[in-house]
Amino acid sequence: MKPFTYAVLLCAPWAAAWAQDSALPRPDPQFRGKLAPKREDSVASWPDAAKPPSGAPNVVLILLDDVGFGATSAMGGPAHTPVLERLAASGLRYNRFHVNALCSPTRASLLTGRNNHQVGFGSTTELAAGYPGYNSMLPKSAATIAEVLRQNGYSTAAFGKWHNTPVWEVSPVGPFDRWPTGLGFEYFYGFMAAMTSQWEPKLYRNTIPVDPPGKPSENYHLTTDLVNDAIRWLHQHDSVAPEKPFFIYFATGATHDPHHVAKEWIAKYKGRFDEGWDTLRERTFGREKSLGVIPADAELTPRPPELPAWNSLTADEKKLLARQMEVYAGFLEQTDYEVGRLLDAVKARSQADNTLVLYIVGDNGASGEGGLEGQESGGPYDANAAIPVRLQYIDSLGSETFANHYAAAWAWGADSPFQWMKQVASHLGGIRDPLIVSWPARIKGAGLRTQFTHITDIAPTIYEATGIRFPDAVNGVPQIPLEGQSLLYTFDHPEAPSRHTLQYFEMLGSRGIYKDGWFAGARNMLPWEIFVKGFLQASGNQWELYDLAHDYSQAHDLASRYPEKLKELQEAFDSEAWRNHVYPLMPVPGTFPNPSRGKTSFTYAAGVARLPFGVTPNLAGRSQRIAADIEITSQGAQGVIISQGSRYGGFTFYVKDGRLVYETDGFGPDHQKMVSSEPLPPGKVQVAFEFKADEASGKESPMAALIGSPRGGVGRISINGKTVGEARFTRFGPFSGVWDTLDVGANPGSPVSRDYSVPFAFTGKIDKVTVDLL
Fold it and tell me: Is residue 714 assigned to a domain?
């Protein structure tokens, strides 16, 4: 047989698509060697690995959580952020950069380059609803930056907060195609929720739950851990393929609540906020002008009447609330330091200058979700406790004792000079955050960029910077076109007109629309009302109109002066809303396809662990029976049989000192506990807890569908069918936060009960645990 030489046939129909990168993955390359019957007549050939364009930069994408425009010293704020300042001193600051007004929506737009509703993220994953714009199911027609870069020869890794997987898919059985590693990231280390304890986080490595490598008593902190892991990954990468470019997505849990940070960071700010948020805002405004990060003619917008003046507070209120801001500022400074360690590791590489760093300082405006007085969950007092009671524990703020959050007016102060804060898509305080860009090989000298820019612009920027054409199809699925505009045109042309000329905003019913320098918006609800009033229908909210080309801070409402311009923008919003699946506004959440929905009986074997709330029955305020078949050795046994939650709220059914115990923690305020009147006998035993809920009052919280209603009732515990304890529960639930899990045979993370230390694993044998809703 005559030897045959294979070659790529450029005339083949698929060859043009391959050559122009119009579809990913590229077809398998043809064999380029030679085949012959004899080995000595044959020529081996290996297929080429995917390679990015020559000179393609490394990309480091950094995203902080819940940071206001005026929070960092790099933008004139009170928190000392020298790393961010140094980065800005050699790069570009964008002072008209916009995000969405909540975390999951911003991240969806960031990672895909599309509008948030367009890809199912009209709200957070926990608030998903069964409509295209709100189902939190990232479509395959919206490939991520990571997927495109990976298929073009990049190494990809994500660290920190991941808040874009449907809550019912965050489970041991997945499916995993909407986890980070199913969306283009070859490696992931972090947490899969809106928030987590910085001291006792629930972590995943790729898709596997893992325990943090330390405890609070050992000075463990999540941000430090994330940076350590990212540096370790980078060193591993460079030990094998230092010439291969990488994409690192580093998204901290900081500075979202709980505001957790060590005392030495908090101490740096002692007394710095004693003059209150009104003074803070004014001084930040002055520094913003001195730094030139806002225009000289910008105006400081007034405090809204819904927020109190600092001077209206009592001395005790001032003391507690000032401490809240000290904790937050320390948290933000510590975050800056830790991000600096990561950037130092990147800088130490030989290809450091050819690294594009995009640092987004906040996924939305500062958070007012702490309410008017701030809050501390998990401690020894009720969330509604009087200020003097709360002051007794002021030195514990920032520790693992509390899930703490500052008062809403501090968020307003941190958003200087704008109105409002997180959740409020109708005003700049909710949607404008700083962007810092550094790329030493490409950007020469520092500067300010004032073009209107948006979170959807980041993906196109990365594609143009890397020389990678965004494909028309990925993995066989035609792609939704990118919405944003690359920012590379601004690098060399600071005075270039904005290319992003139309952008809608919507969050929890608040709406906004930007068009050619004008902005119209209508605010729906206050940022802390959702936890009290639930989902208020957005209708008839007062629309306002601003000329942002001449009114940087949105200080002058021109709606009455230019009604035709307002009408034009309202019509533009309506058009964009229909195009992007924004309607219906404010769909009621809590009806997502939880695998437990419709079931009344659940059986768990020993060792079942880390089941998040999205796949477990909602037990709060529900009549129920929990029965466990266990075995007690002749020496006795102790430990947790089943638990759900953490020190910030939950329930636990356990054995201690030979007695059976059932205990609830209603988010910290009241631990209610039953202890069996008789000891557990040795051998095989069935133990049970049964709860009979009171009749519904008809006044359940609007959020009950999501987290349950804290209804009272009577509980009983039994051993082998004999009642050995009975008590009335005045508040039965809610039982867990969004980051908490249900576990059999142990209580990982942080303890629900103050009477044991985690994990307090059961030392006997558990056959099964059955949960029945009655």
Answer: yes
Name the band, by pLDDT with cuts 50, 70 and 90, for residue 264: very high
Half-sphere exposure of 583 (CA within 13 A, CB side): 8
Q: Which residues of 431-460 are buried (b: 16+ CB within 10 A; e: fewer)?
A: bbbbbbbbbbeebeeeeebbbbbbbbbbbb
Verify that 147 and 287 share a domain, yes or no: yes
pLDDT-derived band at 593, boundaries 50, 70, 90: confident
**Which domain CATH number covers 644?**
2.60.120.200
- Look at the chain and report how many structural domains it folds into: 3
Q: Measuring CA to CA, which residue among 459, 398, 371, 440 is closest to residue 61?
A: 459
* Cis geometry, peptide bond prior to residue 258 (ω within 30 degrees of 0): yes
**Using CA of residue 539, residue 545, residue 548, residue 551, what is the dihedral sign?**
negative
**Can you tell me the distance from the alpha carbon of 656 to that of 43, in angstroms, rounded to the nearest whole number?**
72
What does the pLDDT read at residue 12? Answer: 33
The amino acid present at 131, given as its one-letter code, is Y
Encoded tokens for 436 = 């810092």
The residues that bridge with 148 in the sheet, in sequence order, are none
pLDDT of residue 699: 60
CA distances from 763 to 63, 181, 635 (A): 43, 36, 10
Assigned domain for 404 exists: yes
Burial status of residue 755 (CB atoms within 10 A of its CB: 0-12, 13-18, 19 or more):
middle
List the domain range (segments joined by +) for residue 665: 601-773
The residue from 446, 461, 496 where one domain ends is: 496
Q: Omega before 584 cis (within 30°)?
A: yes
Long-range CB pairs of 477-480 (<8 Å, 24+ gap) are: 477/140, 477/141, 477/143, 478/141, 479/141, 479/142, 479/143, 480/114, 480/118, 480/119, 480/139, 480/141, 480/142
Length of the chain: 774
For the chain, give percent helix, strand, coil, nearest 5: 25, 25, 50
CA pair distance 730, 690, nearest whole angstrom: 15
610 and 488 share one domain: no
pTM of the model: 0.95
Segment 48-101, tens digit of pLDDT: 989 999 999 999 999 999 999 999 999 999 999 999 999 999 999 999 999 999
Closest C-alpha among 232, 295, 380, 202 to residue 555: 295
Cα separation, 431 vs 420, whole angstroms: 10
Q: For residue 404, give both structure tokens.
A: 């703490």
> Which of 53, 9, 52, 40 lies closest to 27 in space, CA to CA?
9
In a domain, 635, yes or no: yes
Euclidean distance between CA atoms 337 and 267, whole angstroms: 16
* Continuous segment of H or E residues that includes residue 359: strand 355-360
